[in-house]
Amino acid sequence: MTDVLKSLRDAGYQPEIIEDSSFEAFKGHYICVVDEASRITGTAKNTGNPYDFISVKMKVAEVVDGDNAVNRRIDRNYNWDEAGLKKLLNDLHTAAIECTATSDEEIVAFLPMLKDKVVKVSAWASKEWTTKEGKVIPGGKQASRIVNKFKSKSDKSTEAVPF
Questions:
Q1: Pairing with 93, which of 3, 6, 27, 150 sits 20 to 30 Å away (CA)?
Q2: pTM of the model
Q3: By three-state DSSP, how is residue 87 classified?
Q4: What phi-psi label fits residue 83: left (phi over 0), alpha (psi between -120 and 50 degrees) or beta?
């Protein structure tokens, strides 16, 4: 068997420094496909505090306008509380995805059925954000909203985006 590392060294290979790819937040209107949706629970390693939320992971399939972000991911998280579940149900309704779940158990069973659903998303980078501890972090955090229609910048009207 060939010693691959020895072959590389003998050939004079020198490791290269890997530069930051500047994977920054993007801005625009996008057609996204849901990759995964699930409830996530656990205990934070740093603080020991429990966490409980729903995570919806989407991939940009098409750029309607804005930065080229095809195949980039947009995650939407919803706290597992009354406010978070209302936010999730509003987003589902906005995306015209019917959810008839009437209990916690039913909504958890419903989440995997979101896979491959198509949604319209507006995305932007926030200027700054504040941690739970109140520390202000300067810009770059990806922000997004599920929308029913995209607003046209030219005439301020709304136009439905065909699928």
A1: 27
A2: 0.74
A3: helix
A4: alpha
